[in-house]
Amino acid sequence: MSMDKRIAEEGADWIAEMVSEDLGGFVPAELVDLVMEFEHRVRQETGDEQMGHHAMTERLVLMLEEDGVPVKEGAVTPTVIEEILHWEDEFLAMAGQPRTVRPS
Questions:
Q1: What is the model's pTM?
Q2: What does R_g of the chain's alpha carbons equal in angstroms?
Q3: Tell me: the pLDDT tens digits for 7-20?
Q4: In this structure, what DSSP letter does residue 58 have?
Q5: DSSP result, 18-33
Q6: Can you give the residue ranges of every domain in the chain?
Q7: Which among 27, 25, 29 has a CA at the least distance from the CA of 13?
Q8: Contact 60, 42 (CB under 8 A)
Q9: Nearest CA to 31 among 13, 51, 44, 55?
């Protein structure tokens, strides 16, 4: 599934705000955008459009670490990544592009 660039940017901003509120810290929209980009790549490369959040998070942690995002220092934890994925589901549903993922 591919999103129009404007909707993706709007989604990243909204998701970052929701995750920040839920977790009580600051999550930048740039991180959300990167997670969404990597997630799209994983779904394309694996052909698994319904990959669950836990399995996706495991892959994303490795990709983010390779990209230089501080995952080992605890700045970006698997909890943050899964929260981004859950809020992305909400955003996609509101944008009229709901997705189905397997339960983790």
A1: 0.92
A2: 13
A3: 888 899 999 999 99
A4: H
A5: HHHHHHTS---HHHHH
A6: 5-94
A7: 29
A8: yes
A9: 13
